[in-house]
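Render this sequence as a predicted structure.
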Amino acid sequence: MMKSRKIGLFGGTFSPPHNGHVHFAKLFMEKAHLDLLYIMPAGIPPHKETDAWGTAQARLDMAHLAFDTFATVSDYEIRQGGKSYTYKTLEYLRKRHPEDQLYLLVGEDMFLSFDTWKNPNLIFSMATVVCMGREKNFKEKFETAGAAYEKRYGGKTTYLTDVPLPISSTEIRRMCAAGQDISQLVPAPVLGYIMKHGLYKYE
């Protein structure tokens, strides 16, 4: 009988993927003792507007450049088309890994708004939700919300305690549009891709 593995899922728009994302992903792998991490660029995330991202292909290309050395980048959500729902992605991964443990990494804002997600009960039935907090006082918020989710959905939650890098894709896109230097904020191959393809009006 094969030993159950720990499989992680880290999704997002990744427009662009930045050094904070890479930091989150590596920390997730280390702290959760993952055997495999899927990076999942979203098709159309239900919680976000779509006009500032860049094309799905560009986001997928940049994700490969940022994460391929240590994680598996999947085009599943992009291939599906339409809105991307986490419970559907977890169902897909559950079919691929029927005997393994699934872990879902989310940011603090998304964690605290879980009641607005599509079918949160299904998400918690398939995966342990791991919260990455940005604020210094997020532990108390996490414990309150986590206890509520456990009572409401029978869900398992945990959090990462390392201080994340305060980098924003929105801010990077703004800096690009303004012609400002982002070389310290994104992996070098991602910077090269942005410049080569003129993304976010980078000059």
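Summary. Strands lie at 6-12, 36-41, 72-73, 101-107, 127-132, 157-160. The chain has one domain: 6-166.
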